[in-house]
Amino acid sequence: MKLQPQITHLTAIAAVCAALGLSPLGALAAGASATTSALAFAAAPGAVESANGQLAVRHEKFRLANGFEVILVEDHRLPLIAFNLWVHAGPRNEAPGQTGFAHLFEHLMFAGTRHIPRGAADKIVEAAGGTDANGSTDFDRTNYYFTLPSNQLELGLWIKADMLGYMLDEVDAVALANQQDVVRNERRQSVENRPYGIVEEATFQALFPEGHPYRASVIGSHADIQSIKLEDVKAFSRTYYRPNNATLVLAGDFKPAEAKRLLQKYFGTLKAGEAVPDVKVAQPVITHERRVAVTDQIELSRLSLNWHTPAMYQAGDADLDLAGIILGGGKSSRLYKTLVYERQLAQSVQASQESMALGSVFAVELVARPGKSLDEIESLVDTELAALAQTPPSTEEVQRALASIETQLLSRLEKMGSLADLMNHYNQTAGDPDFVGKDLSRYRSVTPASVQAAVARFLRKDARVVVQATPGEKVLAAEVSTPPMPTGKPAAPSAAERAQLNAPEVWRMKQPKAGKALALSLPAGQRFTLPNGLTVVHVPKPGLPLASATLVLRAGQINNPAALPGLASFTASMLQEGTQTRSAQQVADEIANLGAVLSASASAEESRIELNSLKSRFKPGLALLADLALNPAFSDAEVQRKQAARLAALAQQRDDAATVASVVAARAVYGEGHPLSVSSLGDEASIRATHGANLREFWQQQYRPDHAALVIAGDVSADEARALAASLFGGWKAAVSASPSVPTSAESVGFHPTNSTKARMILVDKPGAPQTALAVVCAGPRATVPDAAAIKVMNNALGGSFTSRINQQLREVKGYTYGIYSHFNMGREQGQFGIRGSVRTDVTGAALQDMFTEIRAVRAKPLPAEEVARARNAQLLSLPGMLDTNQVVAASFAGLWALGLPEDYLVKLPAKLGAVTPASAYRAALRYVDADGLIVVAVGDQGKVLPQLQSFGRKPLELRDANGQVLK
To answer: What family does the Swiss-Prot or TrEMBL record give for this protein (predicted)?
Structure first.
């Protein structure tokens, strides 16, 4: 069921509201008017049919005369349209010696077209209120997608058509060189500087022989990426990027007749290319076990077992999907119970069928606990595999796995963008965009006996690749130099080249206007309070039989006692480890039986328990959530298990450069002794010192109904929500003690949110690292500051979006990074401003110089009106697109309450954002972003980075370890 690994064009542009600590919201077109209302989501007609346990999506599929394939999905649940373009080409179509070509081409598709200048398309999408704007490449295809407000149908088609038909007119040597730099930085970040990244690459190289299109990483090698020439790009485009090799899914709020007219207008005149030959490659056959040893800069060893298995939708594929869940699909799985829970040999386990078109891969991956033997772990995995091959799983295990798949499938139909992408996926791989019902049927046809048979046939010991990764030297390919950026004006395409492309059409030069301004309809949470003080927020969202709940408590890291940093996080992590009436394993099994996703976590100022499930299983799921929150056991045996897991997690944390940078930055910005200065895990001493009594005391003092809110979102009526809250949480009483022994705010321990420690430079050594992870930070404002809207808009322009000044300069102009972004994390008690990202090692100093130049520029003079308008628009019109799933709605309203924001916050947010001016954004920059007050944390190769930091000149310059301790 799982799709093959994807490599994306961008890092995430935005998630949800920055004020919620979830990322930017919003957008209103400059000079445009919009009617705002805080209405509950209406039960408008949707395309998904889910009656009687069946799934189907109403749609229309057709082709234009040039072969361009279109799938229309009319769905009026939200005023949004998802544009999802698939080009049926990926690494499977690459020539020898050109690994990574398809993914590099994906990047170049954003480099400008004949009618849309380089960089303009991203700005236009953001200004129009676009969300989920990105592209990705997997082994078998490349896709390009964004979601726009429904009055921008013509704008979206204009952009997509120009990308497909006119990119080749404008791509030049400069654009190619820049994106080669960006993609190579992406490789450094996602493969070479990420724990186990090179291990995963070695696994596929052991599974597939030379010449097989799945052998190389989707992202390719440095040598191959750098060797691509402009003529190669043009040849690839002429062959694969033609209308007869592409499919567009439009899903959302539009009129089909209008869509068809515009599709003909924008795509109908594009020239078809030659038919693309199908790729046929025999699946490799392994007859003797292959064993591979890889060393990496890791603290915990990892075991990976891999088999060739049937291609997507072939006999055995569905059975192995369920086998993966039974073996390693969460806490209820066999391998988790044996190796993580009972024997405590492994830190984590995952088993899954990676379904692909030319042949699939079944993988079992286990990360060992410190000091534990991979050979012993492997022996126990073999025992479990042999047992499943000999004896069918129980009916309960199969039904449990099926429940998980049913929830996953229905959840993918909830969000307009994922619905469109799923239909494109089914269309390419199954030949039927509405294959979801048949997909579900094939899983329902799986039996215990068919699972056993598939495991016995395909997961044999003599047919696998075993990869053991252990701590040691990270061995990378020989360094490939980064050539200087080409200079001079690139040559224009010749007449012969243009003759092979699409004819110029002057009318395409004009950007289409938006349709009639939409009423900005946002969800309104109806708040009420139970007699015990619990706030309940109900956000109805009909349309699909799904529901979500978030229980949020104002009890986070900031409430930790000085002697036990990490206590809030430890407490939250224990909630699923048993209650007064359920053991840890009973909790895990019950969640799995429901096919639900239930998690508990703690952050700086809050703790959460979150539930996502089918509507039919929401009541028992919420009852389980209530039991976890109100009746945790904190048994000594489970606490000891969790201690071992958290100590191992500390070791894993030290492996990841970006995480280390954030941990060290927090220690520097808050200062020693502050509850937020230590990792949320705590430290080794505090983990070992934490016992059940400490956890129980924290829970009694902090988990109180009068300090909590329950948010229910989805296909749940007001009466149902009220009845569920009262019956499950009405008996919750606060502890007798009214004066908690732990601090309730940062101010109670002597810290004020605007305090800032002195600026400095901090370096953490990561020998041999191909990139430097940066965290440039200072204290920031609280969420309730009056100028919060101006801060959001100003930050969007500075570094908060893909088109922001910092990211554009460091990525799109200089090619120093895959992506680097700024963010204001505005909490209830404390705030922080930070700029985070990774840059190529040898340009660490240059990247910092450019970053600080941009920071000083926004303080030197007000932003131009056009830039403020675009940043403001990217904050307002995207509001509906940022609140498009039950899970996000529940999490967002929980965040609003936890931050102490008023009930009508969302109602008033559009007006506040719309009122931001260049002057107010400028005042925000002057007040909250001071280059001279920033702390720079760099995690990278000291031998190469230290001289660059010394030249940068910021003092003092400290050397620290991965825990943030100053080295002497």
So the answer is: Belongs to the peptidase M16 family.
Rounded to whole angstroms, what are the CA distances from 572 to 556, 563, 661, 666?
9, 18, 24, 21
The answer to whether residue 419 sits within a structural domain is no
For residue 472, CA distances in Å to 297, 365, 465, 658, 770 come to 6, 19, 21, 20, 16
Same domain, 271 and 369: no
Is the Cβ–Cβ distance between 788 and 913 less than 8 Å?
no
Give the range of the structural domain holding residue 357, as residue numbers without chain letter: 290-392+447-471
CB burial of 695-722 (b: ≥16 within 10 Å; e: otherwise) equals bebbbebbbbbebbbbbbbbbbeeebbb
Say whether both 671 and 733 belong to one domain: yes
Mean pLDDT over the full length of the chain: 92
pLDDT at 646 (0 to 100): 98
- Residues 6 or more apart from 946 whose CB is under 8 A from it? 763
pLDDT surpassing 80 at residue 35: no
- pLDDT for residue 421 is more than 50: yes
Note every long-range contact of 287-291, with CB atoms under 8 Å and residues 24 or more positions apart, other chains counting: 287/462, 287/463, 288/462, 289/461, 289/462, 289/463, 289/464, 289/465, 289/466, 290/206, 290/464, 290/465, 290/466, 291/465, 291/466, 291/467, 291/468
Asked whether residue 498 carries a pLDDT value surpassing 70, the answer given is no
Q: Is 766 left (phi over 0), alpha (psi -120 to 50) or beta?
A: beta
160 and 306, same structural domain? no
| Distance in angstroms (rounded) separating the CA atoms of residues 165 and 498 | 12
Model confidence at 44, pLDDT cuts 50, 70, 90, reads low
Q: Does residue 377 lie in a domain region? A: yes
pLDDT the model gives residue 43: 55
- pTM of the full structure: 0.93
Q: Residue 381 sits in a domain of what CATH number?
A: 3.30.830.10
Place of tokens 């969800």: 523
Structural domain contains residue 478: no
Whether 516 is in a domain gets the answer no
Strand, coil or helix: 710: strand
Which residue from 61, 63, 118, 422 is spatially nearest to 267, judged by alpha carbons? 63
| In a shared domain, residues 796 and 816 | yes
pLDDT digits (tens, 9 = 90+) for 906-955: 989 999 999 999 999 999 999 999 999 999 999 999 999 999 999 998 99
Last residue of a domain, one of 700, 723, 749: 749
Reference 877, options 55, 31, 21; nearest CA is 31
Among 225, 246, 276, the domain-final residue is: 276
Q: Give tens-digit pLDDT for 814-836.
A: 999 999 999 999 999 999 999 99
| Amino acid symbol at 829 | E
**H-state helical runs in 788-843:** 788-795, 805-807
What is the number of structural domains in the chain? 4
Q: Is the pLDDT of residue 520 over 90?
A: no
Check whether residue 329 and residue 454 sit in a common domain. Answer: yes
Report the C-alpha dihedral over residues 481, 482, 484, 486, rounded to 10 degrees.
Answer: 120
